Structure formats: C-alpha cells, structure tokens
Amino acid sequence: MEQMIEFCHKVFDQSAVAFAIARVHLDESGTSAVDFRYEYLNAAAGALTDQRPEDLLGRDAYSVWPEGDTSWLSRLYRVAYLGETLEFETVSDSYGRFLRTSMLPVDHGMCALLMHDVSEWVEPMCPSLENAEAGVLFYDMDSHLVQIPATTSGRFGLRRTYEGIVSFCEENFGAACVDDVRRQVVDFRDAGGSILYEGQLADGRWLRISLAHAGRPGMFAFGFVEDITRSKQLEEANARRMGIIDSLGRENYALYLADLAQNTMEPYRIRKSAPDTARYMLAESSHYQEGLETYIDTYVHPADRERVRAVLLMPHVRQQLKALGGEVSVTYRRILEDDTDYMQMRVLSLADGSDEVVMAARDVSAETREQMRQKALLQDALTLAQNASNAKSAFLANMSHDIRTPMNAITGFASIALGHMDETARVQDCLEKILASSSHLLNLINDILDMSRIESGKVEINEEPLSLRGLADELRDLFQGQAAERGLSLSIDFSAIHDDEVLGDPLRLSQILVNLIGNAVKFTEPGGAVAVRGWQRQGAPTGYGSYALSVKDTGRGMSPEFLDRIFEPFEREVPDNVPKVEGTGLGMPITKNLVDMMGGRIAITSAPGEGSEFVVELDLRLPDGASKHASTRHWSSRAVRRDPARFRGKRVLVADDDDLSREIMQAILQEQGLVVDAAEDGDAAVEMVAAAEPFTYDALLMDMHMPHLGGTEATRAIRALERDDVGALPIIAVTADAFEEDRRAAMAAGMTAHVSKPLDLPRLIALLDELL
What we know:
By secondary structure, the protein is of the alpha+beta class. About 40% of the residues lie in helices and about 25% in strands. The protein has 26 helices and 28 strands. It is elongated.
C-alpha cells in the first residue's frame, strides 16, 4: 500500500489530470458500499472540490459532504469489490461540477478515480439560452437523477436538486403530475425517446421540462427548462375566445368577427337556416361601420333605427363596451315582406380592452312575443289587483261605517239608559236596541272571519246525520218573525224531499240557506214574498240523494253587471234609489265557496225590478244501515224557558280570567237558580275541584284561553284526578273560539260541550237543562 501511494506521488502529484485512490467501506452485510475515504488525491483532484488534499486525506467522504450524491457508492462497490472498470459522465452535486469519470480497480476494496472537469464546455450553454427564456438541466442516465445548474435554478426559482425527476416534478408542479411523469420516465429508460412535461408552478408560471435520451448508460442527458407562461396565456385567451364564440354559435344563427380599430368585419359562422338578411350585412362592404349602416337603413324598422345606431355604430359601441363590461346588445324589429320579426344583436369583446369583438345575431321573435304576452298578463293581474285593492278600500270604508253604526247605537243607548234609570220602559227599549245592534255587529264580524278562514283553507266540511225537514223548521222559526216585521209573505216547503235524513254538514248547510234567505228578506220591499222550496232530483249517484234548494223573492233584482261579480269579495250593489245597503259584501262569496266545497253548484236568475231566484244543487250521502241508528240532528234553537227552580241545589264552577266575563256568567247562572263558584284561571279551577268533596259540582263552565293552565290543560288535569265524580262531570267550553275545529279541539280535550261567546243565552240554558 505504501509503495502504491509513493508511486502515485511520483506520477500524479504534478499531473493536471485529477487522480485519486479511494478505500470503499461496506455495510455490516458486506454487500453494499456505505462510504469511502481518500487514501491519495493530487492537487488537481483537490481543486475540483475546492479543498486542499491534506484536508481530505484519511476522512470519510460523507462526513465532509453529508448531503453528497450517494449514487457514486454503487459504482465504487462494483469497481473496488467486483473488479469492474467504469467510465461515465455525471453532474456532481458535491463537487458542483460536470465530470467525466473513469474508475479502475487497484486492490481489494480500493479503486482509482480519473476525473475530467467538462464544466468549461457545458456551463457556457446556460447563458446562451437566456434570450430564449430557457435554462439547461442534466439527467444522470445511470442514477436517473436530475441536476439543476445554478443559473437555471436562480432564473426559474427552482431548488438545485439531485433527485429523481418524478420527485422533482411533484415538488414543483404538484401531485397531479406524478402518474404522467412516471410513465414517461419508464418509457424513456426502456425505449429511449424523450421526456416532455408542462406544468404550472404555485406562483402561476408555466414551465416546460424536456429531456433527450443520451443514447447509452454512463452519459448524462441534456434537458431544458422553458418558461411558457406567455404562450399558455395566449392559449387560454384563445380558448376563452373560442369558448365564447362556440357558445354564441349554439344560440345565434350568425356570428361575425370584427376589429373596431381597423373597421373590419367578416362572417365567422352563418347557419344554413339563417335568413338572407344575415348575409346582406356584408353584401356591399366588409367594413364594420359602412356594412352596419346599410343593414340598419335597409332591414331595421324605421322606429328602431336611431336606437340601433346608438348602440352598434362607432363611437357609441366602443364607449358602451367600456362602460358595460365588454358586452352590449339591442333588440329591434326586422322588416320582412309580410311580417315583422324581432331580432337581437349582441357585441362582445374577446378580451378586456380589446377592439376585437364578436357580433351575434339571434331571432328573438318567440321570446319577445312571450314577454309581451306575459307583460299583458301582468298588466291584467295588476288591474285585477288594483280592482281588488279598490274593493278592499271600499270594504274598509263600508266596514268603518257598518261597524261604527251598531257601536254608536250600543254606546248611545247605554248612555241613554244610564241617564233614565227610573224610567223602566225607556231603559227596556234601550236594552232591546243594544241587543239588536250587538247581534248585527256580531254578524258582521262572523262574515269577515268566515271569509278569511275559507280563503286560508281552514274550513272543513263535516258529515253528520241531519234532517232536511228539521232544517226547514229551523229556518221557518228563524225568519218568520223578521218577514212579518217587514210585511213580507214567507213560505218554506221541503215536502217534495223524500229522503229526509242525510249525511252532511248541518252548520254549513244552514249557513248557506241563512245567507240566501237573509238577503231575500233584506232586499224585498214590504208586500213582497219570499218562497223557499226543496225537492229531490233524479239521477243521483248510488248511495246519494240529489237535492235542489231554491230561494225566490219578488225583490228589486240585480243588474247583469253585478251578477258577473256577485261572488267576488266585498262587492255590493247599491241602486241609486236605495239610501243604504247594510252588510259586508262577503255573504255571497262565503255561500259560493261553501257550495263549491260541498261539491255542489249555485245558479242565479235575476233582473232589475223582477226579483231573484237562487238554486243550490247538492248531492248528499244517504245513511247506510249503521248510520241510520246514529243520532240525527233535528234543528232547534228556540229558548227552553222553564221554572228556574229546576236548577235549585245545583252547583257549578265558572273558570274565566276575564273579570267582566266571569261576572256576567255568574249573574246569568244565578238568575237561573244555580249556585255559582268562580275561579280566576285554570289552576284555580283544578285546585277548587280537587279540594271539594266528590260530586260537589254538577258542571264546570271553562274559558279556553287563560294564563298558566288554559281550558284544555285544566280539563285534562281535572279528568286525571283520582276520584269517582270527575269522569262524568259535565265540562262546558265557553269561549270566543267559535269555529267548528275549535269545538272539535274542545271535545278532544275531554270537554262535554262547546258554547261560543258572545253567549247565546237560550242555547246555554237549554244545554244546562239537558246536562243537569
């Protein structure tokens, strides 16, 4: 060994060729090199590393260059332990040089290295590429590693690296490139050829990486890094242009490309189905301004020409493109021989601030006519809405009068009564008028609430057993007195109805006929007649009876104009010779809606001065065997006037949080001979029942809306008490919730009956008489 080193000193110390002797260290298995140490190197070899030879001798190489290129180790092993001779080119990251290296075996575990620095002819290539916006890179054909020279690294912002090209591309371009680059590397290694990849850096720049095969192992391949950002931007801009043009081509029959700066225009795409006028735009001239002027003067409707010129001709079109974000359009009428079409011309800039534009012509006749139709519909809807608004305004004005009138009577007669308490007859007269005004006011409120509930879909039609002849008796009792007071003849005849018992909604059927008969009585002059008839029609579906109910009067009749809108809300006909017409204008809309909800129809025959006839036709289900035995409603609300002594010894509990309502109820019931206890809310009612001995109370009258426990909650709490009397204890809901669903909700909560406020005193007494 010493002789070999001495020989090297004599031969290579002064040589310009870099020469070194290296001892190669193996791993524990003895099959792989892990490091090497210089036993000799001359001054030329030290110069390659920018180190003095004495500073490197005896030191492990990777302790000097911890980040050094480990690809040399496999070559060192093959030469020092397998006896191979190698010659190769490489880019040394440790030395920072481009080297052509020869390795020779000299002893077991040792090899000689002859290294030629070829940087002087490689590196000058880099500056020569600057004007071409490119840089050089090198690829080691043996280790498959890529090296980026300093000039390339600095110019393109790439890390100087000595790693696989797949990792290099992934680090710079992202994971999406890995599969493509890996496939190219395999083909490059196995079949020659080249590697080409274009990718975008994080800062938005585009680079192209290209490598050409060196032809054989042991050589390094040259590659190039090119900045292609500008060409990519041009490609993207062109793609956007083509996208705009293609999208326009799908909906426009003609496209033209124009340069406003050059005043030129040429057709880009014209469909075969396009009208001839699409081609006439260029018939005389390919100039933008002149061609459009000719087209406008020839084919645009005279009334639209100035508007089209103000959009399409220069300098207007340039100004508007700048102001409106690069797009302007105008719709106009195009003159045809026997018709007029509607056309739209759009002008779009192909890039921000560019004078290059695309013009798109489109037939919008169908769209425009549909818009015109929709506009007419909207105008009609607006007119209807305005009419409805006017009707509601009139309704509110009428209601202000109609509600204030009974209120004025109530307050006025109450004041009169208070001032004449010692005049019994006068006080009685005032109280009767107060009751009449209150009844009228309640009817007004009920109509308003009914219509609101019908329009919101909250009214349901029920099926219950009822007697139509019983309904006739009820109507007779209700209107006989009113008709007599007005000097009218009233007849009600349902004798032509054979199937008297049916299944229907007694409340709503009564409401329909009450509205019709009430109007007939109201609008028939003294000495006239009102006739109500019911008969059974032929052709009813199986299981049903078909019925006609007629209300005919000899009153003033109605005009044809009013008949057209009689079922519209808030409408009332006020003849010139009639000083006032009471009502809400909701009775007939309510009636019509209820008839429709029952699946029936209503017909009207009327003429001014000849009276009116309303005929309601309904199919009502007939009871089957099971329902024939159900309780049939026989109509009666006449007061049951019996001796108050019949209630003597009966005790009831009234629960109501309103002091006045509670006081009224107590007074009414006490006048009937009942003993009355009072609870100010639901909690108190439950406590009083729980504290009393069983069967103390014969009935409870419960308001539905109270603080803390309401009527339904208090009822459930009382029914849940563990005592014998509460299961059968009559609990009557006395509430302002007056609708049918409110009654059903009270029944579902365990209540026995439902009475609405304001109190119908005869009905309440009749109910108590029935329950007690």
